[in-house]
Amino acid sequence: MSELEPAAGTDEDASEDPGSQPGSRWPRRLAWLGGILVVVVVIALVAGTSLVATTIAVLAGLLILRTGWFFLQSFATPPPEPPEPGKLRKVKLTYRCSICGAEVRMTVAGSEDPEPPRHCLEDMELVAPID
What we know:
131 residues; alpha+beta; Rubrerythrin, domain 2; 37% helix; two-stranded antiparallel sheet
């Protein structure tokens, strides 16, 4: 017993984020499930439809809403900042030697518009991609 342990229930024992505690998801999930169940029953009674059809419709609507929300969040996320000068960037450029016809594909470069490589003592020509 040479080491002292904090007493249960102290601030050191508790996590700063209450959502990170194990088992804290289940009450939230049960609350959502209960809310969905109430919505399904109310819609079924008001519209006069079966519980199965209403449940399928509500779940399909939630799936569509969740998918749309995911895509909207991805559009709202700003693109990453460009790398610092001197760091390598991914490029997809193809060069051809005008003298012998040798081709080179450049996949990584220090800038987005790098200088063409040299072959046969001449600068190689950029080949337009065929897309």
